[in-house]
């Protein structure tokens, strides 16, 4: 063997073994991921004032209830496509929804009693795990967690509005 052939062989052995290790490591990591779309069951959202929560959607039951402009509660069935659900799953993963606090509510005092602040309850349910987050719109806590949850909520509502317009 020439010196050049030995160098190529050594390089291929190092690069090849590194590539095999990466494939083995990351395939196991992805296979054991805590929130996989293959285990996805449903996404659910409720929003409104804390005492009424008239707006809701559940992708498992396809029940969609909302308050229209005339203050009438409309109940209908709305089916989201698998692509829509995959988008919502990926958006939640991208925003770090799994790492936010479950309770992001504001403690109400008597002086704030007349203040109407919307509340959102979002739940992602998987076969073995799930994540449920309760968020008040005026939550004063960690801004990054609040933004991640708000963006996830906005995307869910956007997909629901697009699906209802079809």
Structure description:
By secondary structure, this protein is α+β, with helices and mostly antiparallel strands. It folds into two domains: 1-32; 37-165, Mago nashi protein. The chain has three helices and seven strands; from the N terminus they run H-E-E-E-E-H-E-E-E-H. It has helices at 3-31, 82-95, 143-165, and strands spanning 40-48, 55-58, 63-67, 73-77, 103-104, 119-126, 130-136. The protein has a seven-stranded mixed beta sheet, covered by helices on one side. Helix 2 packs antiparallel against helix 3 (143-165). The longest helix has 29 residues, at 3-31. The radius of gyration is 23 Å and the shape is elongated. The termini are far apart. The mean pLDDT is 81.
Number of strands: 7
- Our estimate of the beta-strand percent is 15-25%
Supply the CATH superfamily name of the largest domain. Mago nashi
- Judged by helices, strands and strand pairing, the structural class is alpha+beta
Secondary-structure element order, as H and E?
Answer: HEEEEHEEEH
Overall 3D shape: elongated
Give the total of domains. 2
Which strand order do you get reading across the main beta sheet?
Answer: 4-3-2-1-6-7-5
Low-confidence stretches: none
Give the CATH topology of the largest domain. Answer: Mago nashi protein
Based on the structure given, which CATH architecture of the largest domain is correct? 2-Layer Sandwich
**Mean of residue pLDDT?**
81
Q: Roughly how many Å is the radius of gyration?
A: 23 Å
Biggest pleated-sheet summary: 7 strands, mixed
